[in-house]
Amino acid sequence: MAGERAVIWVARNVTERKHLENELLEASQTDPLTHAANWRRLIEVLQSHFAAFRRYHHPMALIMFDLDHFKPLSDHWSLRNQSSLM
Known about the structure:
The chain has one domain (15-85). The chain is mainly alpha-helical. It is 52% helix and 0% strand. The protein has helices at 15-29, 39-56, 70-77, 82-85.
């Protein structure tokens, strides 16, 4: 019909895709063994907190630990308990 308007609606369920995207994001930001945040995630969180510190002048502190010779502890507590040890 000449001159008539038409609307085409396309819908798609993206639930599975969003689930996979969330899994990929989680994998890119955490250590697979301990599920602790990795360096990339740490930097993102620190930048966010530093921006809040600068904006609102909230107090801020950072404590970091570097565990030397962790392997003997890890071997002693076994692979099963490493996540708890971390």
